[in-house]
Design goal:
heterotrimer, A: alpha/beta, 7-stranded mixed sheet, 6-stranded mixed sheet, B: Rossmann fold, Rossmann fold, 2 domains, 5-stranded parallel sheet, 9 helices, 18 strands
C-alpha cells in the first residue's frame, strides 16, 4: 500500500466552506411582536442543559416572586432531536455524586426503576490486548477504578430529566434546532430557532416555516461535543484565548441483549486492534459494561470502541474497529448467542483542562461537553455535565436574584468544584500519547501517578485536522460483516431510527473536491457512511466526495477532521433509546 | 355456524382477483366448518357472470342490482341485510381498499368484531380465528370473535382456487339504502392516471438499483417487467440520483409492497430497502456480488452480470408465455 | 361550518415494538407521537378554512386515549385546531376498533360537526377503518383514501384512490372523510404556535359525559378477542445459482418461476 507520508495532505488544508461568525451570529433581534420572549433559554436538552433547567426550577419553586417575574415561559429548553435523549450517547459509567446532589430524593433503586440506570459496579477488570487472541489482565489503574459507580444510559437519563423539567414548568421545545446566536451590543440576547421546510438546495418549500428569535435574559449553551453555537460564540467572544485547541475522540457503541449476564465491568486499553507503530497515530480503547434492565428483566451489555481523532492512517474506522474487536475471544464469550439491540456513535471532547474555553460571556455561559469537560483518562464526563448544569442553574439564579446580568461566578464555581479538581489532575495525562502508545505510555502513567505534576508543565495539543493523512492498512483487519454478529454501517444507521426527510437540505459543510487521502479519511471515519468516493474516482490526486447527509447520526467527528457539522432540521437524525 | 358471506368486487365484466381469493377462502373454510359459503355482488352483474362464482366454491350469490357500484356504504347496507336475513356468522373480504372500508362499516352496523390485514384464517372448535402480522411482521396476533366476525384479508393473502364447472344459484335482493348511502354520488369511477405508477397493487415487480450502472439500465427492467406482466420499482439510491421516479421507490421512505414476485436487479439489499419488499411471496435477486446482503432474503439468488442475464431472461419469458 | 379532526397518539415508528415476554402483551413504553396521517387531516381542515369557499367557525381536535394523549392534542392545536377534546376513561381500556369508533362517535355527536376528518390509517397497524365505523354510528356518508377534497356549501367533491384507479365522488354534508398522505403537505407549526398550544381550551371528558354505554366499550364490550401471539413462519433458506453459462442459468430461472405459477 502506497504510503505518502512525504507531502501527505492534512484536512486542515482544505477547510470547509463555512464562516461561523458570519453565518451563525445574528446581529440584533427581530421586532417585539415577531419574537418570543422567555426567561432563560437553554440550548441543548442533554445531561447538562436539562440539569441547568432542573436546578434552576428547583430554586425558583421556592421563589414565587422571581418565578413570576420571568413571565409565561420561565425556562425554555431547545432540543433538536425528536425528544431529549434522542441524540445522546455515552458509555456510560457515572460517578453518582452530582446526580444524587441534583435529585436528593431519589435513591439508586429509583434510578433503576425509572429506567436510566442499570446497576452499581461491583467487579471490574482492565485488559491489555497484545493480539487478536490474547488478553492480559492487569491490575486496575487508578483512573479505571469504578467500584460503586453506576452504569447508566444518557439517552434514557435525558428523557427522565425532560419529564422532571416539564413538570416543574419548563417548556421543552423538541424538534427545534438553534441555528443562530443573537448578539446585540456585545452581549448574547437569545437564539434563533431553525427554519423548517427547506428543500435540498435550501429553497423554501410550500410548507416553509421560518425560525423565530427567542429572546432571553440568559442563555445556556449546552450543545454537547460539537457545539454549533458554541463554536461561533468562542470566536465572537475570544473564549479560546490562551487555551490549547480542542481535540476529539470518536466512540461507536452497541447495546446487546445477552443470554448470560456479564458479571464485571471491563475496559481494554489496547493496543489490539489498533496499530502500535507511532506513524499510525492510533490511540484508543474499549469498554464492556453490564446493564440490568429493571423494567424488562433483560440482561444487556454496552460495548464500545473509542479512538482519538489524532490518527494518521486514513483507513481508521471506529465502527469497523468495534466490529473487529468483537471477534476477540474475550468478547465472543460475552456476546455469543445474544442480539444487537442498539447502535450509535458520538464524538467527545478530549482536550481536558488546557483546552477548556472561558465559560462565560455577556449574557451566556457554556456547560457540559460544549465546554469540553470530559476526563478522557477515566472516560468520565456525565457527572461533570450534570454538575456544570447544576452550577449554571445556581449561578443564573444568583444573578437574577441580584438583578444583574453577570454570571462570572459560574467560572469560579466550576474550577473550584469536582470538575476543576478532577480535570486539573489529569490535565497532562493524554497529551503524551501524541507520541504513540509505546513512547507515550510511560509518560502517561507518570502523569497519572503524580496527578500531572511530573513531568508537569503545560502539554500542548495538536489540532486533529492538522495531522497529515496517509492511506494505510488498518482496514485490512476489518471483518466482512455477517449481519448477525458483525454489521455494516448502513444496517447500523437503520437501527438508530434515523428519520431524516429525503429532500432535507444538506447540513454538512465539507470541501467537495479534496485529495484522495482526505476523502478516504472521511469515508472511513464516518460511522454512518455519509462520505463516499465514487467507484470511478482516480486512486491518486483529487476526488469528488459524495455526501449522503441523510445518513448522518450527528456524531460530530467531521468537525474535528476538516468539515463542519451544522444543525439539521429539527427532528431529524437518530432517536437513541438506551445508548 | 350458519354460513360465511364473501364479498366479490367486479369491474368491467370481471371479478377482482383478491375477491376471487376471498371467495375461494370462504368456500374452503365453510367446508371445514360444515356450513355454506355464499357471495354478494353489487350492481349490474349478469346472471352468467354472477353464477361463475360457483366455480370457486360458493353455493349462492346474492345480487343487489340496484345498489350503486364502487362505494362502500351501500354494500354495508346490502351485506347487513343479507347476513341478518340468512344468519351468516362471518363475512370475508379478500383484501383491497374497498374491502377495508366495507368491512369496518359492516362491523359497526352488526356490532361484530373485525380483523384486518389477515394472512391466515383457521378453524378451531367450530369457529374461525384470524391471524394477522403485527410490529412490522415480526409477530403474529390471533383473534377470535365473541359473536359474528368480519375478516378482511391482506392483499394477496388468500389463494384463488382452481375453478371448477359448478355454477352458483343467483338470488336478487332488494335493499333499501340507508340515508347516509343516498348522500354519496359516484361522479367518475376508475380514472387512470398515467404519471402515477401504482406499484402497490402489482402482482409482479422488477426492481432496479445502483447495480444497473446507469439510468438506461432501467430499460432492461422495463423489458422484463413487460414480459412478465408486472411493473418496475426502484431503490432510494437511484431515485435520489434521478434515474427513476419517486412513486416507484420501495423501502423505508418509499412504498411497502407484497407482490407474488419481487425480482431485484443490481440491488445490494441494504436494510432500508429490504423492509419495503420483505413480505413478498417470492423474492429473486440478480447481483454480481455474492456477498450482497440481499441474498439473505432471496428464495432464488443469482450471482452474475445482470446485463447478460436480464435480456436473455426477458426473451425466455416471452417464449415461454408464447 | 364546524370541523372535527379525529387524532390518535401512536408509538413513534422508531420505537422498538416488542411483546413483553413475561406479560404477553405489547410493550407500550417509549415515545408516542401524533399519528402522521392525522397531520394531513388537520392540514386539510386548515386548507378548508384558508381556502375561503366556506366559513369555518371552529376546528376541534378530538382524541380517545390515556393521559399521554394530550400531547397529540397539543400538536394538533399547534398545527391550527382551535380547541381539543380528550376522551379518557378506564372503562375504555382494551376497546377494539368497533368499540373505539362507537365511543368517538358519541363524542362527535355532542359536537355536532359538519365535517369529520381523520387520517386513513394509523402507524400502529389499523387500516382504513375507524372512519367507516364512526360514520356508521353517526349515520353520515363517508369515504376513505381521499387525496383531494373540495368543499362548497353543503357538499364535498372528493377524489379517492380505489382498486381500479381514481374515483370522483360527491358527498352531502355532514360527512366523515379519511384522508391519505398524498392529499397535502402538512405545515410545520411555528414556535409561537407550539408554545401557545397548552393555553388553548382542552375539554377532558369521561364516558358518562357523552353518553357512552359502559357495556359497549372496553375489553368486555369488544367483540374481538386478541388472544395469543405466535412467531411468524420461518422462511426456508433460498437457492443460489452462480451464473457460468447464462443460457443454462436462464433455463433454471424459467423453470423455477414456472413451478411457482409466475409465468401464467
Amino acid at each position: 500500500m502506497a504510503s505518502s507520508n512525504g507531502g501527505a495532505p492534512a484536512p486542515a488544508q482544505f477547510p470547509p466552506p463555512v464562516d461561523p461568525q458570519g453565518e451563525f451570529i445574528k446581529r440584533g433581534l427581530d421586532p417585539e411582536d415577531e419574537l418570543i420572549e422567555v426567561g432563560i433559554a437553554i440550548v441543548g436538552g442533554g445531561t447538562a442543559g436539562l440539569a441547568a433547567a432542573n436546578r434552576l426550577l428547583q430554586l425558583l419553586a421556592d421563589d414565587e416572586e422571581l418565578l413570576e417575574s420571568l413571565g409565561e415561559v420561565p425556562v425554555a429548553v431547545i432540543e433538536k432531536a425528536k425528544t431529549c435523549g434522542g441524540h445522546n450517547l455515552s458509555g456510560a459509567v457515572m460517578r453518582p455524586g452530582p446526580l444524587q446532589e441534583l435529585f436528593p430524593e431519589l435513591s439508586r433503586e429509583d434510578w433503576r426503576a425509572e429506567g436510566f440506570a442499570f446497576g452499581a459496579v461491583d467487579k471490574e477488570a482492565v485488559y491489555l490486548l497484545p493480539s487478536a487472541r490474547k488478553a492480559l489482565k492487569i491490575p486496575t489503574p487508578p483512573p479505571f477504578k469504578n467500584h460503586g459507580n453506576e452504569v447508566i444510559s444518557v439517552a434514557a437519563l435525558a428523557r427522565y430529566q425532560q419529564r422532571v423539567a416539564e413538570e416543574a414548568g419548563a417548556y421543552v421545545l423538541t424538534e427545534t434546532a438553534a441555528t443562530q446566536l443573537i448578539v446585540e451590543d456585545g452581549a448574547v440576547v437569545g437564539v434563533r430557532s431553525g427554519d423548517k421546510g427547506r428543500g435540498k438546495e435550501g429553497q423554501e418549500l410550500r410548507n416553509f416555516e421560518p425560525g423565530t428569535d427567542v429572546k432571553a435574559k440568559f442563555t445556556v449553551l449546552a450543545e454537547g461535543c460539537w457545539g454549533h453555537l458554541t463554536g461561533a460564540a468562542i470566536r465572537e467572544f475570544d473564549l479560546a484565548d490562551g487555551r490549547e485547541p480542542q481535540v476529539w475522540e470518536l466512540g461507536v457503541k452497541e447495546v446487546w441483549r445477552v443470554p448470560k449476564p456479564l458479571d464485571r465491568l471491563i475496559h481494554t486499553i489496547g493496543p489490539w486492534p489498533l496499530k502500535l507503530k507511532a506513524k499510525y497515530g492510533q490511540i484508543g480503547g474499549t469498554w464492556l459494561y453490564p446493564m440490568k434492565d429493571s423494567k424488562t428483566g433483560d440482561d444487556l451489555v454496552s460495548i464500545g470502541f473509542v479512538v482519538d481523532l489524532e490518527y494518521a492512517d486514513a483507513t481508521t474506522s471506529a465502527h469497523d474497529l468495534l466490529q473487529q474487536f468483537k471477534l476477540h475471544p474475550l468478547v465472543r464469550e460475552i456476546l455469543e448467542g445474544g442480539e444487537r439491540v442498539s447502535w450509535g456513535a458520538k464524538a467527545l471532547p478530549a482536550g481536558g483542562w488546557w483546552s477548556m474555553p472561558k465559560l462565560t460571556m455577556p449574557g451566556a455561559l457554556l456547560a457540559g461537553d460544549s465546554a469540553g469537560m470530559v476526563d478522557t483518562v477515566a472516560l468520565k464526563g456525565v457527572h461533570h455535565s450534570l454538575l456544570s448544569g447544576k452550577l449554571a442553574g445556581e449561578a443564573i439564579y444568583a444573578a437574577l436574584k441580584r438583578g444583574d446580568s453577570s454570571v462570572e461566578s459560574y467560572e469560579e464555581a466550576v474550577s473550584d468544584s469536582l470538575i476543576g479538581k478532577e480535570l486539573y489532575a489529569v490535565r497532562n495525562t493524554r497529551q503524551p500519547f501524541q507520541k504513540g502508545f509505546l513512547r507515550g505510555g510511560p509518560l502517561v502513567n507518570l502523569m497519572i501517578l503524580t496527578r500531572g505534576r511530573f513531568p508537569g508543565g503545560r502539554w500542548r495539543w495538536h489540532r486533529n485536522d492538522e495531522k497529515p493523512m496517509f492511506i494505510g492498512d488498518t482496514k485490512d483487519g476489518y471483518p466482512k460483516p455477517d449481519g448477525k454478529y458483525t454489521f455494516d454501517k448502513l444496517s447500523s444507521v437503520y437501527i438508530t431510527h434515523n428519520a431524516t426527510r429525503d429532500d432535507a437540505p444538506n447540513h454538512i459543510r465539507v470541501r467537495k473536491r479534496v485529495p484522495r487521502e482526505v476523502a478516504e479519511t472521511w469515508a472511513w471515519m464516518c460511522p454512518a457512511g455519509v462520505y463516499e468516493i465514487p467507484d470511478d474516482a482516480p486512486s491518486h490526486g483529487s476526488v469528488e466526495v459524495i455526501v449522503n447527509y441523510t445518513n448522518c447520526v450527528q456524531c460530530g467527528a467531521i468537525t474535528a477532521k476538516g468539515g463542519r457539522l451544522t444543525t439539521p432540521e429539527g427532528g431529524d437524525g437518530p432517536l437513541y433509546q438506551n445508548t | 355456524m350458519s354460513g360465511i358471506l364473501a364479498y366479490a368486487l367486479h369491474y368491467e365484466g370481471a371479478f377482482n382477483k383478491n375477491s376471487l381469493g376471498g371467495v375461494s377462502e370462504a368456500a374452503k373454510l365453510a367446508g371445514e366448518l360444515g356450513c355454506e359459503a355464499h357471495a354478494v355482488v353489487i350492481g349490474d352483474v349478469s346472471d352468467e357472470l354472477a353464477a361463475t362464482l360457483g366455480n370457486y366454491g360458493v353455493t349462492k350469490v346474492f345480487r343487489a342490482k340496484d345498489a350503486p357500484e364502487g362505494l362502500a356504504q351501500p354494500v354495508v347496507d346490502v351485506m347487513a341485510k343479507v347476513m341478518d336475513s340468512n344468519g351468516h356468522d362471518y363475512a370475508l373480504f379478500g383484501g383491497g381498499l374497498l374491502g377495508f372500508e366495507i368491512g369496518a362499516g359492516l362491523a359497526a352496523r352488526l356490532n361484530a368484531g373485525v380483523t384486518m390485514e389477515v394472512t391466515q384464517v383457521n378453524v378451531a372448535d367450530g369457529k374461525l380465528t384470524a391471524e394477522r402480522p403485527i410490529h412490522g411482521d415480526s409477530s403474529i396476533s390471533i383473534s377470535s370473535y365473541k359473536d359474528r366476525g368480519i375478516i378482511i384479508g391482506r392483499l394477496n393473502a388468500f389463494e384463488t382456487a382452481a375453478p371448477s364447472d359448478v355454477v352458483a344459484e343467483v338470488q336478487d335482493v332488494d335493499v333499501e339504502l340507508s340515508e347516509a348511502s343516498t348522500r354519496l354520488t359516484m361522479v367518475q369511477r376508475g380514472e387512470q392516471r398515467g404519471e402515477d405508477i401504482d406499484i402497490e397493487g402489482a402482482n409482479i415487480l422488477v426492481a432496479g438499483g445502483r447495480g444497473l450502472g446507469k439510468p438506461e439500465g432501467f430499460e432492461l427492467c422495463e423489458a422484463l417487467a413487460d414480459a412478465l406482466g408486472g411493473a418496475v420499482a426502484a431503490t432510494r439510491a437511484v431515485v435520489d440520483a434521478g434515474w427513476y421516479p419517486y412513486s416507484t421507490q420501495i423501502g423505508q421512505t418509499g412504498k411497502t409492497v407484497s407482490p407474488k414476485l419481487y425480482l431485484a436487479a443490481g440491488i445490494s439489499g441494504a436494510i432500508q430497502h429490504k423492509v419495503g419488499f420483505q413480505s413478498s411471496e417470492n423474492i429473486v435477486a440478480i447481483n454480481k456480488d455474492s456477498n450482497a446482503p440481499i441474498f439473505e432474503y432471496t428464495d432464488l439468488g443469482i450471482v452474475g452480470d445482470l446485463n447478460k442475464i436480464l435480456p436473455k431472461l426477458t426473451e425466455a419469458v416471452k417464449a415461454k408465455k408464447g | 361550518m364546524k370541523i372535527c379532526v379525529l387524532v390518535k397518539e401512536v408509538p413513534d415508528a422508531a420505537v422498538e415494538k416488542r411483546i413483553n415476554p413475561s406479560t404477553g402483551r405489547m410493550d407500550r413504553s417509549g415515545e408516542r407521537n401524533l399519528n402522521p396521517y392525522d397531520t394531513h387531516a388537520i392540514e386539510a381542515a386548515m386548507q378548508v378554512r384558508e381556502g375561503g369557499e366556506v366559513e369555518v367557525d371552529e376546528i376541534v381536535a378530538v382524541t380517545m386515549g390515556p393521559g399521554t394523549a394530550v400531547r397529540a392534542l397539543h400538536k394538533a392545536v399547534s398545527l391550527g385546531a382551535d380547541r381539543s377534546v380528550h376522551l379518557a376513561d378506564d372503562a375504555l381500556a382494551g376497546s377494539d376498533v368497533v368499540a373505539t369508533g362507537y365511543a368517538l362517535a358519541k363524542v362527535l355527536e355532542r359536537e355536532s360537526p359538519d365535517l369529520v376528518l381523520l387520517g386513513q390509517q394509523s402507524d400502529d397497524g389499523e387500516c382504513y377503518t375507524i372512519g367507516a365505523v364512526v360514520a356508521d354510528y353517526l349515520k353520515m356518508p363517508s369515504l376513505t383514501q381521499v387525496i383531494k377534497m373540495d368543499v362548497t356549501t353543503g357538499k364535498l367533491r372528493c377524489e379517492r384512490q380505489a382498486e381500479y384507479g381514481y374515483d370522483t365522488v360527491e358527498i352531502q354534508l355532514p360527512a366523515v372523510i379519511s384522508v391519505g398522505d398524498a392529499i397535502n403537505e402538512p405545515r410545520y407549526p411555528s414556535l409561537k404556535a407550539i408554545m401557545g398550544a397548552k393555553k388553548k381550551p382542552l375539554d377532558a371528558v369521561g364516558i358518562g359525559d357523552v353518553g357512552i354505554e359502559g357495556d359497549r366499550v372496553g375489553e368486555a364490550g369488544s367483540k374481538v378477542v386478541c388472544g395469543d401471539f405466535k412467531a411468524p413462519p420461518q422462511k426456508a433458506a433460498g437457492e443460489i445459482i452462480e451464473d457460468e453459462d447464462t443460457n443454462e442459468t436462464v433455463e433454471k430461472i424459467i423453470a423455477w418461476l414456472d413451478e411457482r405459477k409466475l409465468l401464467s
